[in-house]
């Protein structure tokens, strides 16, 4: 029985030692490939566990932001991966000097075909360390507006008000103008223009607008809302209702609709005239 097992073992070993390819005099066998794939899998598995341990255990109790902890863990993992792959290649019997040509070709490929990928990776590292945006922020970049729900090394995921996830390359946040509504805190001020007829008393308009703001639960009481008399129009006086909100930072249009509904109702109850454009038509008789 043991003799048969030995014969099977030696047969398998002979097949595994069959050269598959030769690189600059170095023979690559099936055993070399199996050895490389096995230890590469182990290396990726262990470094992934190490990254999670660094993020959630080693740095978990510190005051360091989660995004920075993730960046540190990812960088440590990539460094160990590079060193580990070099060690695996050497112990597998692969002469690294034979990979010089392949490495040169790969470098050219990165320089031309992977420029955007490299740019996004570097931008991701900058975002994770400088923190111009973070998970939970309300942002606008280009024509995209929404809440940041995930920041990875290559791209950032933004969730819009329509529950649509948009994947934005990280380079957009470095090279483009980004509006962060909650960079410092989540309190924002919104300005809503309101027009009234010249027949009305401006003080009355101000009083009614402040009442509308005070009655809306989404408007903060501190800082207090205020009303500016902003302009004398052709047929109207223009006011600006300025309010602060925290709850509606990601739904400013909803709050605007609520306030305008309430303003219209309040004006109707108090017989406040809402102006409309006036046009004078002059008819000339060109007859004799």
Q: Could you walk me through the main structural features you see in this protein, from its secondary elements to its overall organization?
A:
With 288 residues, this protein is an alpha+beta fold. The chain has three domains: 2-113, no CATH class; 132-180, SH3 type barrels (Roll), CATH 2.30.30.60; 188-269, Alpha-Beta Plaits. The protein is built from eight helices and ten strands. It has helices at 2-16, 30-58, 66-91, 100-112, 115-130, 171-175, 202-215, 252-269, and strands spanning 19-23, 26-29, 138-141, 144-151, 155-159, 165-169, 178-180, 188-196, 226-232, 237-245. The strands form three sheets. It has a five-stranded antiparallel sheet with strand order 6-5-4-3-7. A hairpin with a 2-residue loop joins strand 3 (138-141) and strand 4. Helix 2 (30-58) packs antiparallel against helix 3 and helix 7 packs across helix 8 (252-269). It is elongated, with a radius of gyration of 33 Å. The termini are far apart.
| Structural class determined from secondary elements | alpha+beta
Number of domains: 3
Could you state the order of secondary-structure elements as H and E? Answer: HEEHHHHEEEEHEEHEEH
Low-confidence parts = none
Shape: elongated
Helical fraction equals 40-55%
**How many β-strand runs?**
10
- Distance between the first and last residues' Cα: 131 Å
Supply the number of helical segments.
Answer: 8
Spatial order of the strands in the main sheet?
A: 6-5-4-3-7
The chain-level mean pLDDT equals: 81
Q: DSSP strand (E) fraction?
A: 15-25%
Biggest sheet record: 5 strands, antiparallel
* Rg, alpha carbons: 33 Å
């Amino acid at each position: 029985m043991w003799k048969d097992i030995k014969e099977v073992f030696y047969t398998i070993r002979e097949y595994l030692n069959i050269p598959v390819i030769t690189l600059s005099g170095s023979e690559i066998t099936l055993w070399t490939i199996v050895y490389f794939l096995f230890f590469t899998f182990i290396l990726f598995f262990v470094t992934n566990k190490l990254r999670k341990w660094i993020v959630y255990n080693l740095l978990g109790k510190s005051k360091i932001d989660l995004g920075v902890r993730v960046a540190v863990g990812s960088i440590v993992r990539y460094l160990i991966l590079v060193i580990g792959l070099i060690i695996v290649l050497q112990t597998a019997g692969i002469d690294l000097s034979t990979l010089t040509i392949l490495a040169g070709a790969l470098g050219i490929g990165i320089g031309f075909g992977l420029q955007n990928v490299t740019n996004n990776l570097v931008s991701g590292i900058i975002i994770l360390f400088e923190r111009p945006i973070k998970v939970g922020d309300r942002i606008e970049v280009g024509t995209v507006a929404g809440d940041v729900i995930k920041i990875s090394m290559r791209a950032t995921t933004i969730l819009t008000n329509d529950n649509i996830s948009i994947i934005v390359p990280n380079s957009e946040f470095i090279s483009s103008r980004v509006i962060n509504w909650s960079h410092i805190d989540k309190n924002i001020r919104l300005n809503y223009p309101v027009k009234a007829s010249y027949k009305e008393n401006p003080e009355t308009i101000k009083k009614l607008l402040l009442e509308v703001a005070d009655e809306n639960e989404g408007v903060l009481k501190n800082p207090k809302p205020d009303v500016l008399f902003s302009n004398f129009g052709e047929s109207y006086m223009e006011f600006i209702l300025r309010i602060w909100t925290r709850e509606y930072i990601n739904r400013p249009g909803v709050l605007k609709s609520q306030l305008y509904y309430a303003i219209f109702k309040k004006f109707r109850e108090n017989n406040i005239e809402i102006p409309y454009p006036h046009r004078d038509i002059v008819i000339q008789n060109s007859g004799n």
